[in-house]
Design brief:
The strands form two sheets. The chain has a five-stranded antiparallel beta sheet with strand order 1-2-3-6-7. The chain is an alpha+beta fold and 176 residues long. The longest helix has 16 residues. It has one domain: Peptide Deformylase (Alpha-Beta Complex), CATH 3.90.45. A hairpin with a 5-residue loop joins β6 and β7. Bound molecules: zinc ion. Zinc ion (ZN) binds next to α2. The site of zinc ion has 5 residues, from α2.
């Protein structure tokens, strides 16, 4: 396993539409090792989600995991498609391993249903709420060349981490 380097905002690969994965390649050793590397990289940099373009691979692959009560099960999404958005919205502070030391509030649907291949190459249908739903949307945006700052409707909430810790940490129950 290996920790991969993270592409940062300004790297053109973060603005590209990622290519679909050939489902026949999912079981290959190369691809399985890539998934392991993505998880190792996500954990190393204390993220709860990581999309392949963030490690300079323009492929439709996302990994996620977060322990805790409002946690996220260990999840691999390959060629994901959102097939349903819930009617209610939620606002959450978001951050991104590709945008150092910044946070901003983003409003997104609070429930989604997504269809994707898992790491066994089996097509799954996942219903997600809360943090899980927000994380899915944030990571899938990376596959479209979008960043959370593109989804912010109120740029006045854009906050450096040092100021976030002073002024906003108490009010925010969840940050991704
Ligand atoms: Zn991100």
């Amino acid at each position: 396993m290996a920790v991969l380097s993270i592409a940062k905002v300004g790297n053109p690969i973060l603005r590209q539409i990622a290519n679909p994965v050939d489902p026949a390649s999912i079981g290959s050793r190369r691809f399985q090792e890539f998934l392991d590397d993505m998880f190792e990289t996500m954990v190393k940099y204390e993220g709860i989600g990581l999309a392949a373009p963030q490690v300079a691979q323009s492929e439709q692959v996302v990994v996620m995991e977060c322990e805790g009560s409002d946690g996220i099960p260990q999840t691999v999404l390959i060629n994901p498609k959102i097939v349903f958005y819930g009617p209610t919205q939620s606002e959450m502070w978001e951050g991104c391993l590709s945008i150092d030391n910044m946070r901003g509030k983003v409003v997104r649907p609070s429930m989604v249903r997504v269809q994707a291949y898992d790491r066994q190459g089996v097509l799954q249908d996942i219903e997600a709420n809360g943090l899980f739903a927000v994380c899915i949307q944030h990571e899938m945006d990376h596959l479209l060349g979008k960043l959370f700052i593109d989804r912010m409707t109120d740029m006045s909430t854009l906050t450096q981490l040092e100021e976030f810790d002073v002024y906003w940490k108490e009010e925010s129950s969840t940050v991704i």
